[in-house]
Structure formats: structure tokens, C-alpha cells
């Protein structure tokens, strides 16, 4: 079937003029989540980038337009990237879901079949994004090699509380962690943004006014996510976001198959924030370690299931993913 609204869900040859027309007019956004009771904070993944090893013949990628199994299509971009010669836009059921980078420029550091994939931001605000990545792996006959970047975003961060702790000039409040904190102020001298660490480092964080950013660079799907998640926004007040970026060194500790689980994501954010960024109440205690246990929590971790994860984390959870796939298939058979 290759009419104006659908793409063929097979690996058969297709008319690429029809394909391009469908992709251009394909629907976007609209996260598929049910309304919930009011919550003060939400957590979601905001960046997902990986490395994968592909087993299908590499000459497949010599073409500009490639049809794969499962309704997945690749369209080559005119430009490559810093580390890869070619970039393909990945379409899944007619929607652009990310970019696939192929043919490493430095063949001494990466194998020829090593590729990089970055999920489109809007897809991360949908429930089914892990299935999309799993289907891409199947279509490419690929294995997930590593996580190269994961961003966890907590919306509803208590910026006023952080500011009060940061600005405290008494000896009552101490800072956790050695990372430098950079602040950005507006014309009135009010702090509008905190940056923790360096953007070039393996771990980087920031607290900023997400509502203000969305006014300048609209992303309707994020507002839809807030609404469907029940994020409590009083009197049209601005929403502040705490965003922590984990690159390979830290990101690869965690299981991509569980990143659609808000409790697991909150646990990652809590684990990586501990002893890296935060504040504690000073006491008349000569034992520094014991004193730092009086930490001031800037998030209600328990509200979304955030717990401290063990150091030796088992990344793979194949049984969990298999159960997810089975449920997905049963749902398809029931409703389609």
C-alpha cells in the first residue's frame, strides 16, 4: 500500500516520489500519554544518542534512499558530520525519528560497521520511543554497542530554593561537590541560569527557565507532555528545568531499554547528582563527611520513584525488553 497517507510496511521496492510526499506530510508530535493527577515535578529523557554495530552489508548505504523492513526508511543528507562521512535521516511509519551516521572517518578508532544514532527530540516525549529504537536495530540487523549521551530533564525544579542556598552568605549552608557553578543574570541582577561543570566534560548540568526558552523556540510536544503528566503550573508561572547531561563515561552505565521508565530515569538523575551538585546544612561537627549527610534535597525524589542506584549496575535486562515486545505485539493483534 503506497497511498497518500501510508507507506508500505515491507522491504519491497517503492516509488520514492510517493515516499518523499508521504514523509513531507507525515503527522508529528502529540505524545500518547493519559492525563494524570497534579504533580509538582516531572522527569523525562531529553537526549538519546548511541553507537551500534551493523551486520547488514555496508554497500547498502551507498544508496541515497534505502527501504528497510518494518516501515523504516533512510534518506541521505547532503552533508556528513564531524566524525562520519554520511548522515541519513531515519523515518519510521512516515515520521522523521532521528539521524543515523555511517562510515567513520577515522577507521583506526572505529570499525567500518560502527554507526551512531541520535533520536529526534520530540520522539523522546512519547511512550513508544524505545520500541522505535529496538525496531531500528532489528531492521539494520544491529546490536546496541554503547550509550554516548543521555540527558535527563526534571521540570518543576525549585529555582527559588536553589537561589536562596546559593546566595546564602552565612556559614549555615555549604556546597556539595567540586564542580564549578556558573550563573547567568538578567539586567536586574536576578539569576536566570545555573550551569554546573563544563559543557565539554563527561557530566554537565544546568537549571534554567524552560518556559522562557520555549517561547523563543517553541516545542509544543513539551507543553503537551506537561499537560498529560499533570505538571502543576500555578497562575501561568514559569517552569524551571534541571537538566543533567551524561556522556559515554557515565551514560554507558545505564540500560537504554529502561530509559522510558520515569522512576529509573529519576534514579539515574539522583545517583549522578549526589556528591556532585547540591547543598547541605552546616553543623558544629568536625567530621566533614557526617556533616554533609545533612544534605538539602532540591527535588522530591520520592514523588517520582528516584532512588540511589548501586555502583555496579547491571546494564542489560533482556527479559524486561522481551516482555515489553510481547505486550506490544499482543496490543497490535488486539486492536489492529
Explain the overall architecture.
25% of the residues lie in helices and 29% in strands. By secondary structure, it is an alpha+beta fold. Strand 10 and strand 11 form a beta hairpin. The longest helix is centred in the last third of the chain and has 18 residues, at 318-335. Mean pLDDT is 84; it is low at 1-16.
Distance between the termini: 16 Å
**Coarse morphology:** globular
Return Rg in Å.
22 Å
- Count of individual beta strands: 14
Sheet with most strands:
11 strands, antiparallel
Portion in beta strands: 25-35%
Count of separate DSSP helical elements: 9
- Helix proportion range: 25-40%
Average pLDDT score: 84
| Class computed from helices, strands and strand pairing | alpha+beta
Query: Which segments are poorly predicted (pLDDT under 50) over 5 or more consecutive residues?
Result: 1-16
**Largest beta sheet: strand ordering:** 2-3-4-5-6-1-7-12-11-10-9
| SSE string | HEEEEEEHEHEEEEHHEHHEHEH
Amino acid at each position: 500500500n503506497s497511498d497518500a497517507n501510508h507507506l508500505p510496511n515491507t522491504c519491497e521496492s517503492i516509488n520514492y516520489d510517493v515516499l518523499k510526499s508521504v514523509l513531507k506530510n507525515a503527522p508529528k508530535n502529540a505524545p500518547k500519554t493519559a492525563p494524570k493527577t497534579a504533580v509538582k515535578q516531572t522527569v523525562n529523557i531529553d537526549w538519546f544518542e548511541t553507537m551500534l554495530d551493523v551486520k547488514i552489508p555496508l554497500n547498502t548505504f551507498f544508496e541515497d534512499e534505502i527501504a528497510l523492513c518494518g516501515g523504516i526508511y533512510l534518506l541521505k543528507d547532503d552533508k556528513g558530520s564531524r566524525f562520519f562521512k554520511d548522515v541519513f535521516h531515519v523515518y519510521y511509519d512516515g515520521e522523521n525519528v532521528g539521524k543515523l551516521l555511517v562510515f567513520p572517518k577515522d577507521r583506526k578508532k572505529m570499525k567500518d560497521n560502527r554507526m551512531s544514532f541520535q533520536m529526534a527530540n520530540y520522539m523522546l516525549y512519547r511512550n513508544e520511543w524505545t520500541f522505535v529504537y529496538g525496531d531500528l536495530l532489528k531492521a539494520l540487523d544491529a546490536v546496541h554497542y554503547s550509550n554516548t549521551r543521555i540527558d535527563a530533564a526534571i521540570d518543576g525544579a525549585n529555582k527559588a530554593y536553589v537561589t536562596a542556598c546559593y546566595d546564602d552568605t552565612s556559614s549555615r549552608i555549604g556546597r556539595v561537590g567540586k564542580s564549578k557553578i556558573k550563573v547567568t543574570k538578567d539586567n536586574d541582577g536576578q539569576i536566570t541560569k545555573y550551569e554546573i561543570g563544563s559543557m565539554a566534560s563527561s557530566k554537565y548540568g544546568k537549571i534554567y527557565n524552560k518556559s522562557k526558552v520555549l517561547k523563543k523556540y517553541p516545542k509544543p510536544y513539551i507543553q503537551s507532555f506537561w499537560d498529560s503528566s499533570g505538571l502543576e503550573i500555578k497562575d501561568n508561572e514559569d517552569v524551571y528545568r534541571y537538566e543533567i547531561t551524561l556522556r559515554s563515561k557515565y551514560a554507558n552505565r545505564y540500560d537504554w531499554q529502561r530509559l522510558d521508565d520515569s522512576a529509573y530515569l529519576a534514579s539515574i538523575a539522583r545517583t549522578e547528582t549526589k556528591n556532585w551538585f547540591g547543598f547541605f546544612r552546616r553543623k558544629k561537627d568536625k567530621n566533614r563527611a557526617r556533616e554533609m549527610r545533612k544534605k538539602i534535597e532540591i527535588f522530591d525524589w520520592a514523588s517520582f520513584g528516584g532512588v540511589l542506584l548501586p555502583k555496579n549496575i547491571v546494564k542489560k535486562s533482556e527479559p524486561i525488553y522481551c516482555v515489553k515486545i510481547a505486550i506490544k505485539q499482543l496490543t497490535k493483534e488486539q486492536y489492529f
